Amino acid sequence: MTDDRQSPEQLLRAYFHAKDENRPHRMRGVFAADASLEMTVRSGTIAFPPATTGVDAITDVLVRNFGRTYENVYSFYLQRPAADLRAFSCDWLVGMSEKSGGAVRVGCGRYDWTFRQSPPFLVAGLVVTIESMPVLPPDALGPVMDWLTALPYPWCHAARAVEAIPAIPALKPVVEYLGQR
User: Mind listing the pLDDT tens digit for each residue in 98-147?
Assistant: First the structure.
């Protein structure tokens, strides 16, 4: 008998590959069929349904619909999970641009993951908290993408992200959130 368990790190990496690269087919290798997603949005600049159940519905929300609106997506976990966990919480950072109009968004918040402890060893639940999501003009794309692409993907310490963040006043809430980590 073989154990087909993926580590939390493998699951989290696969999630970013699915979401950031707009690859919906990869979500079945991350979330259990009956997984749950809860979204807490503390920013008025982005909206998501508060609760979603099932891998197909989660894929629609986090990959298909997201990918229709955003491109140039770079996401980072600000902590790294241990090898064998039932649950994992960490802060995150994301930058992206809108396909329509080119506005740039930089956001931060928290992930709370739970993992199934029996086959299939996938994500059972995810709570996403969006703390801040400033919207920047299209001319911020160059500096923001230069910053994000220089960070280690997908694991980056908050201090490293803050030390190199572009000096754009609208990013102050992100700097403040990351500076507390």
Answer: 999 999 999 999 999 999 998 889 999 999 999 999 999 999 999 999 99
Q: Please list, residue by residue across 110-145, b when 16 or more beta carbons sit within 10 angstroms of its beta carbon and e when fewer do.
A: bbebbbbeeeebbbbbbbbbbbbbbebeeebbebbb
What is the rounded average pLDDT for all residues in the chain? 94
Residue 116 lies in a domain: yes
Query: What CATH code is carried by the domain that includes residue 106?
Result: 3.10.450.50
Question: Strand pairing of 123-132 and 31-41?
Answer: parallel
Q: How many domains does the chain have?
A: 1
Omega cis (within 30) before 8: no
Taking only Cα atoms into account, the Rg of the chain, rounded to an integer number of angstroms, comes to 16
Give kind and range of the element (H or E) at residue 151: none
**76 belongs to a structural domain:** yes
